[in-house]
What does this fold into?
Amino acid sequence: RLASFPMEKRLDDFDMSFQPSLDPAVIRDLSSLRFIHHAENVVFLGPPGVGKTHLALALGHEAVKNGFRVYYANASSLIERLVKANRENKLEERIKALAKFNLLIIDEMGYLPFNSEGAHCFFSLISRRYEKSSTIFTSNKSYGEWGEIFGDHVIAAAVLDRILHHCTTLNIKGDSYRLKERRRQGLLS
Ligand code: ADP
Ligand code: MG
It folds into this structure.
């Protein structure tokens, strides 16, 4: 497992039957890692607990296994680090360092909104990766709500335009797996 990964998740451990809104053929296609070869993006959208982080990490695991360089970051802490770099006149350097990764996983877009400096830094990062390398995003917010994340609808549109140009979006509309586990434990005890 990679140092930047918060935990190890496998595709084999993901119960597809629990999320009927997910097309197994799409997951299978993603696991072929063709999207990385083509510098395409993947976005997992959905409410908490439906497996967005699990699937993102599992694809990251497959990518590492196949020799790709992968980096995981929580969206808020990534933005924080980019903003800090920007203030030290090192944004370009930081973005260049991230460009070395074939796959960047940006988890939990939308839990915390960005300020305008953060949005600007994020736009620079996305522009640099556009059509060169892959990024997987997870978010609890629909695309229509991304304007709120960026606090700026013009920047949000510009970012989305680049992300979505070559992108697979998986909208997971199901129950929380965490809740299911809690319910099951409730039945057993
Ligand atoms: P999200 O990122 O959408 O909030 P997570 O990916 O963190 O959700 O999933 C919550 C927990 O439930 C994790 O421990 C994850 O491994 C597990 N989980 C979620 N969906 C499934 C599933 N379909 N099969 C197996 N485990 C799952
Ligand atoms: Mg998550």
Notes: The first strand starts at residue 41 and ends at 45. Residues 16-188 form a domain with the Rossmann fold fold (CATH 3.40.50.300).
